[in-house]
Structure formats: C-alpha cells, structure tokens
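Morning. Coffee machine broken again, so started the prediction first thing and wrote up yesterday's gels while waiting. Chain of 430 residues, entered below exactly as on the submission form.
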Amino acid sequence: MSLHFSKSEAAMRRAENVIPGGVNSYARIGMAPTPLVFSSAKGAYLYDIDGNKLLDYYLGMGPMILGHSPAAVIDAVKAQLDAGLLYAGQSEIEFEAAQLVCSLVPAAERVRFSSSGTEAVQAALRVARAATGRTKFLKFEGHYHGWADNVLWSNRPGLQEAGPREAPIPIAGSAGQDTVLADSVAILPWNDLGLLRERLALGDLSAVIMEPAMCNAGAIAPRPGYLEGALDACRANGTLLIFDETITGFRLAPGGAQQRFGITPDIATFAKAIANGFAVSAITGRADVMDRFAHGGVIHGGTYNAQPLAMAATAATLREVSKPGFYDVIEENAQVLMDGLRKILHDAGITATVTGFGAVVHIGFGLKTLPSEWRDLSQMDRPRYSAFCHAMLKRGVRLLERGTAFLSSEHGKAQIEETLTAAREAVREI
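Came back before lunch.
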C-alpha cells in the first residue's frame, strides 16, 4: 500500500495565493510530501481530500486526548450552541469548568481562562513580575512557551550559536523578533540543578518557567530531585516557579505533570488537551498571586476568554479524563507501541531512542543514549526521521516530523498493531 496526496498538493498551491504558505501556523508548513488538506476526522483517524484514511498521531498537535469528534464533547457544545455564543459576561458553564480545573490541578487555587497557550504564558509572566517586583525571568533551552517576542528564545538553538552550556546565549527564534527583549530573559540547560541554583542565587529573577516534563521537543523526564530542588531554590530566592503544562496538562495525568511527579508550582499554565480541540487555555496558581488579576492592578483580558462553547468543551473533556482508569488504558497501549518500535528499529539496525509518558511518545533517530536536555536532542538524525515519517504516511500513519507521537483514548490495540505493521515496512524502505 502506498497512498498518494495529489489533491492536497494541488489545493495547497491554490491556497498559497491567499494564505502565506497556504497555512495559518508555522508548524504546519514544510511537511513531506506536502502539507495535507483534511475533510473530516473521527476517533483516531483523519480523512483527507484524496480519500486517504490516516491513523493520526498529531492529534491537532496534542489537544485531542479523547480522539477526534468525541460524542461527549460534541453533545455538550451542541447544547450550549442553542443557549448562546458570547455574552461579554459570565456563565454557569465557565464556573463549572473552573471548578473542575481547581479540583484536578494541585496548583489551582484560582484559575483564569484565555484562548491560547501563548496568552496564558504572557499572563503568568506578567503576574509574576507584579508579585515579585522583578522583571527578568529564566527559561530553558529547547522549551517552548509560545511565539511572543519575550519568550521565543533558544527554542531549538544550534549548538554553535548557543555558546557554552554553563552560560548559553539567548538565540532568537524568528526574524523580526524584538532583540531588546533578550535582556529580560536568562537561559540555561534544563535538568541541571546545580546551574539553576547558582543562577537563582543572584536574586534578580521574577520567575523560572519550564515544561515540567520536556515534551515540546522530546519526551524527557525530570531527573530525580530536579523539580523538588527547583521549587526549593525558587522559594529560597523569592522567585516564582511556573510550570508550562500546555502539552503535559491533562495528558500525563488528570492533574498534569505536577500531579504525576508530585511537585506543586506557584503558577501553572494549560492549553491543548484541556478542551479537546477548542481554543482554551488557563492560568492557575496560588490564590495570593492569582488574585492580583482582580485586586492587584494586573490586567488580563480577552474578548473570547471563557467563551461559553469553549467552556462546555472544557467541562465535558475534564469530566471524561477524570474517570477512573482513563489514563491506565492509554499508558498500557503506549507501552506496547514503545516496546514494539524499539524492537523494530533495533532489528533494522537503526540507532534510536524511544521514550514517553503514555499519551506522549518520542522517537529519537540517531541517539545512542536517553536524552536529558535539548543539547542531547539536537544530535537527532532529523533527515532520516523525516524519511521515516514520509514512509509511514504512505502507509496510512501520520507522525510528527519532530519525533513526537501523541496518543488518545481512541488509540487501542488495533491501532497500535496497525502502526507497528506500517513501521516494519517503513524501516525497510529507508
């Protein structure tokens, strides 16, 4: 079996006349053989305009924890659709969604909703500056916190540009980025507690922001004691710890990575899987910090914040993922997938690591040892992995070319076996 994508290719050429690159997000451009155009989605599968049925591990870049078009979410949104779209006021459904977030997330003494992970991070950094009276914050190489100018630093830096590991140089992620903002950010490699403690001791940081498990690039766990040490060091130096759980939230556990690893930060942001495909994000945290949005002069706004349709989707999604055993099934199927891929790659003589946290799996072609930070991941054989992704796509399996595969509750035993069958053929092709 070898699928073809000629209709998508032709549609993309037409779209380029009205949309730059034919896409509305930089992450959708440059896929081999062409960015795809879809007509529908159901369960674990996408259907494109060429008539192909594709087993989907993009899952909307992470949000679709329940799979595509789940009845519970669709029914909740349909019911709200008849009641109203946007009130410029409050609704009972947003209160229900907020209560669910606060009941599930350890850090969530309060929650504010917004529309994207980028927005949530900006609000988190603003309230941290207000709470501490400091302007500078620290982020880590390889961690992604949105496309805004102040945070798009050293997302995927080349090692020759990045400078020494102990004192990385902030590398802008985009042309046109405001480089003056480099002065407001400090950069370190992740997972090195000694370096973090040294930098915090300078006493000038409003916040340390991190992915509590590195999942935008890779699927890397924190080293034992790292998150605990980071929290202690932040508190000792008057700095707030922010977990960006845009990817890990409601994907690694019902309470996110903070629940999985048992560390409660001062602030945490969420998006993606919180509403299974609807545009929702959340800023959560300690009451004394979060209440600055109400009484401390910290502005946080948005026309579409807590939009009722999105809140209906949020409440429905969180009710589903909080059901007993929900994550156990995903973890079991993901383990079969990871074990199977390791054997297939080993038997084919392909050096690679396969790591993951159940609903997030990462395949690192060219890596001989398990990565612990971005500088390890940067050694991946990306051209060969892209070739593998293309070979898988021709066999009906869609993998992210950055190495990540997201799983949902709709990825069952049959879908895992379908994936492994395709992988056995794809490795022979490459």
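Residues 350 and 418 are 20 Å apart (CA to CA). Going to sketch it on the whiteboard this afternoon.
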